[in-house]
Every structure is written in C-alpha cells, then in structure tokens.
Amino acid sequence: MAAVRLGCTERDRVDAHSVVEGLPTAAEIAEASAKLEEPSKNQILVVRDGSVVGYSTIRWWQERDDTWLYLHRGYLVPEHRRQGIGSAMLSWAEERIRQPGSLRAHPPKPADSDQEAGAR
C-alpha cells in the first residue's frame, strides 16, 4: 500500500514536504488500517496480477456539534487509471456509506419548546 501511495505521489506531483501529515510509511499505513472500524468492511484492496495497485478506505467521526462526518480516500497507481477502476472504488465507498448499519446516523435533536415559546 505504501508503494501505491508513492506511485500516486510521484505521478500526481505531490510535494511530500508541503503536505501537513507527510507521506505515510508502510508501518503507518498498517497502523491506520488496523485502527479502522471494521477493517474488512471499510477498506478494499485492488489487486492486479498479484500486486496491490490501489486501495480505498472509509472513516467517520462525530464532531462536537454531533454532526457525523465521513471521509473516503482512494489511491490507484497511474498505470491502472482510466480503466474504470477508480470509478469502481468510488462506487464501492458510496455504497458502503449508504449501507444500513454502517453509519452513525442520528436524528436531529428535538427543539427545546421553552426556547421556541420565548422566541415568539
């Protein structure tokens, strides 16, 4: 997976020194993958001819205002782009996020009736 990130970085002209978090090492990628909630459901690997050529992950978290945020990231080595693989990775992420039980969907909090009465 680190080789995928490196291949993407070189092709996409990412300056490793200008990125806040820098480029992750293989150990850092492994650690981040292990910390995923349900790694087997929230991460996919794209394998071609026995080599990992891409991967995508989904993460989510709750903000202080109780808003849930979802982040999906995908990396695909340049040699395998423009073949529909990246689109398939994005479709996987979108479908996974929509699956019942995969998200932390919370209904909005009911309005405080006392505050509403005072506002009128």
From TrEMBL:
Xref: Gene3D superfamilies: 3.40.630.30
Record keyword Ribosomal protein present: no
UniProt keyword Phosphoprotein present: no
Region (Disordered): 99-120
N-acetyltransferase domain sequence ranges: 6-120
InterPro entries: Acyl_CoA_acyltransferase, GNAT_dom
Domain of life from the UniProt record: Bacteria
CDD domains per record: NAT_SF
Biased composition (Basic and acidic residues): 109-120
GO molecular function: acyltransferase activity, transferring groups other than amino-acyl groups
Name recorded for this polypeptide: GCN5-related N-acetyltransferase
Species of provenance: Streptomyces azureus
